[in-house]
Amino acid sequence: MANEVKLHGVTGSPFVCRAVIALNLKEIKYEFVAEDLSNKSADLLKYNPVYKKVPVLVHNGNPISESLVIVEYIDEVWKGVPILPQDAYEKAQARFWAKVIDDKCLPAVFKAIASHGEEQAVAEAHEALQFLENELKVKGSKFFGGDNINLVDISATFLALWVGAAEEALGIEVLSKHKFPKLTEWSDNYVNCQAVKDSLPPKENLVAFFKKRFGKA
Ligand SMILES: N[C@@H](CCC(=O)N[C@@H](CS)C(=O)NCC(=O)O)C(=O)O
Ligand SMILES: *[C@@H]1O[C@H](CO)[C@@H](O)[C@H](O)[C@H]1NC(C)=O
User: Fold this and answer.
1) pLDDT (tens digit, 9 = 90+) per residue, 187-216?
2) Where is the GST C-terminal domain (predicted)?
3) How many other β-carbons are positioned within 10 Å of the β-carbon of residue 198?
4) CB of 192 sitting under 6 A from ligand 2
5) Which tens digit of pLDDT belongs to each residue from 99-119?
6) Whose CA is nearest to atom 6 of ligand 2?
7) Whose CA is nearest to atom 14 of ligand 1?
């Protein structure tokens, strides 16, 4: 049976990276189709007409959009290392935290970065991140997923590498070690997981990106 897997994406996107991590965790062979977001391909517009965003996974011709939907799809179709818990309640909790990260944490952190660490924006980012810090403390585990990474860890990819790159590029502090010891420890462990390490862009590329995009002239 044909099992053709393509991933439309751009390098350096934390959302695309979520899909890449899931593919690497499951050891799936795939073709990366590099998109130019300033000149989107006809395929991308056809596959994701609603958002016109990457990532889009195309499995045997069937397109799937939205990074978290893609990660769940990969987990369901390919056996091997599980990404979601089996237990219904634990699965619901994992989906809840992934949603918190997308709806609450990432927008707040992004605003703190875009504002160059403006006080009020940073305070709001801290408030959002505190929920994740507490969750790690309550779980008392290495990852949100326990001993191994799960959907929640993959959702938080941006916090593990991109935030540090933005801090370095702009000379700001959003995710401080003394305020968020658990998240900092999580971040170190996470980027050192083999499947994650193999999927991340070089940090210096992200630093350059943030300098160009948000740096003062
Ligand atoms: N909620 C989406 C977000 C994806 C997203 O924001 N992708 C960006 C690249 S990082 C994009 O394709 N932007 C193109 C555009 O907005 O025109 C997901 O999780 O997949
Ligand atoms: C946009 O992409 C198409 C191919 O998808 C290419 O033929 C065209 O030259 C590109 N335009 C620009 C301005 O880069």
Assistant:
1) 999 999 999 999 999 999 999 999 999 987
2) 87-214
3) 11
4) no
5) 999 999 999 999 999 999 999
6) 39
7) 53
